[in-house]
Design a protein that fits this description.
alpha+beta; five-stranded antiparallel β-sheet; 17 helices
Length: 443
């Protein structure tokens, strides 16, 4: 996508600018060329490449002159006047304004004139022929130039110099092919065309087996291709896990998400989905436990009711109602137990004191809070308090979460409960469903 190209371009420009600031003109130029391949319509990398080329050219002239002077001085120090003269002349051609080469050439001429010309020429030719046989074309050409400088009228060193130039041209062609292959490979990598880059660097490696750069890039490409394969497998696992999750195959989906996480341990998506599945499994397990407990209490209560143990039955029906407050059956049975035990006594509540859990307390909650879950937060006595008022039909409860530095505690109408019970009973979706069911049953 465009965002990916923009990021790749910006990263390349940042790397190139760093090398540019350290005067690494060649390194900067290579990366600017990669950036230009990513965004060919941007002028900045092209301008920087031109600056790099200028600096490289200047450095090349200075280095070439310094290298030639060093070589000439070395020959001069060994009294190789003819050899020194040739190289001083080359240095003078590079930097004609420098006085030093001209002075040294004058000294060499004076010394050459004092030696036998034939002896100097023969020695230069002999040395050049040895280098030519060894295919040291640059070294041989230099020696033939030296011999030609001693005896300009001789044709042999001139022919040999041409032969050296022909061989050097072949090598230059090889260099050009190698450079072009490397450039193709770098450009292809810049746009993530790994197959093209692999072919180009393979060609470069075959052209110059001794060069280290092509094998390094081929190893890098192999790693990227392997990573792409891993990414493809990861995406397939995620797609499969998502499908299983949509079908509510929670256990199987979790296993596949865990397999995907092995492919990419740092990716957050499978972690998030596994946590979501664990929460759903926990809710299911909690609800199953509540259902089992409710059914057991109802069975025990019905047994006592049938045996006319109304007091024992009422207690069990009340416990069952705590598990499922919206169930009509335990409420009906509690009323039946009360009718059997004794008539109801109407009590006048103390208006100065509202007992938690009493009808007056519940009535106040229903009067002051809307159906559903209302959450408020506060701080008191070194604790962070989260208060959730749950209203279902004509009933209400206050759930409290108290977080201290030494631990977290959960309460329902000031009676301590578990975190699972707190999370389940105050779940907005669950509470809203209960209110919907209440409305249907109390039209």
């Amino acid at each position: 996508g465009q965002a990916g190209l923009d990021k790749k371009y910006n990263d390349l420009i940042a790397q190139a600018d760093t090398k540019f600031k350290t005067s690494d003109w060649a390194g900067a130029k290579t990366i600017y060329q990669q950036a230009s391949a990513v965004k060919g319509d941007v002028q900045y990398p092209k301008d920087q490449i031109a600056i790099c080329d200028n600096n490289l050219a200047k450095e090349g002239v200075d280095k070439k002159y310094a290298d030639l002077i060093k070589q000439a001085d070395a020959k001069f120090g060994t009294s190789d006047w003819a050899g020194a003269k040739i190289i001083y002349q080359q240095a003078q051609a590079v930097k004609g304004s420098e006085k030093y080469p001209a002075d040294q050439i004058a000294i060499c001429d004076k010394n050459i004139s004092q030696l036998g010309v034939d002896k100097q020429y023969s020695a230069a030719i002999a040395a050049a022929d040895v280098l030519f046989t060894a295919k040291n074309w640059s070294g041989a050409k230099e020696k033939y130039q030296e011999a030609s400088g001693i005896k300009p009228g001789e044709q042999y060193p001139k022919d040999r110099m041409k032969a050296c130039d022909d061989e050097l041209a072949k090598l230059s062609s090889l260099d050009q092919q190698y450079t072009a292959a490397v450039k193709r490979g770098d450009s292809a990598m810049a746009i993530n065309d790994l197959e093209t880059a692999q072919t180009a660097f393979t060609n470069a490696k075959n052209l110059k087996p001794a060069e280290k750069y092509p094998p390094q890039k081929l190893a890098e490409i192999a790693g990227l291709l392997s990573e792409n394969s891993k990414d493809k497998a990861y995406r397939a696992l995620i797609a499969k896990a998502d499908s299983l999750l949509k079908l509510d195959s929670l256990i199987d989906a979790k296993k596949v998400y865990q397999s995907a996480l092995v492919q990419k341990p740092s990716d957050e998506y499978p972690k998030k989905k596994i946590a979501e599945i664990d929460a759903r499994l926990s809710d299911i397990k909690f609800q199953q436990a509540k259902d089992a407990k409710y059914n057991k209490l109802i069975t025990q209560a019905d047994t006592k009711f049938k045996s006319k143990d109304y007091k024992g039955a009422k207690s069990l029906y009340q416990q069952a109602l705590q598990e499922k407050p919206l169930e009509i059956y335990p409420k009906t049975q509690i009323n039946a137990c009360d009718d059997a035990l004794n008539p109801k006594v109407v009590k006048v509540p103390d208006s100065t004191k509202v007992v938690i859990g009493s009808d007056e307390y519940v009535s106040d909650l229903v009067k002051n809070y809307p159906p559903g879950v209302t959450e408020t937060q506060m701080k008191e006595e070194g604790a962070e308090i989260t208060k959730r008022v749950v209203i279902v039909g004509n009933k209400g409860w206050v759930y409290t979460k108290k977080v201290y530095s030494w631990g977290t505690f959960y309460f329902k109408d000031e009676q301590q409960i578990t975190q699972a019970a707190y999370d389940y009973d105050t779940n907005a979706t669950w509470v809203n469903k209960q209110n919907t069911d209440y409305q249907k049953n109390h039209k």
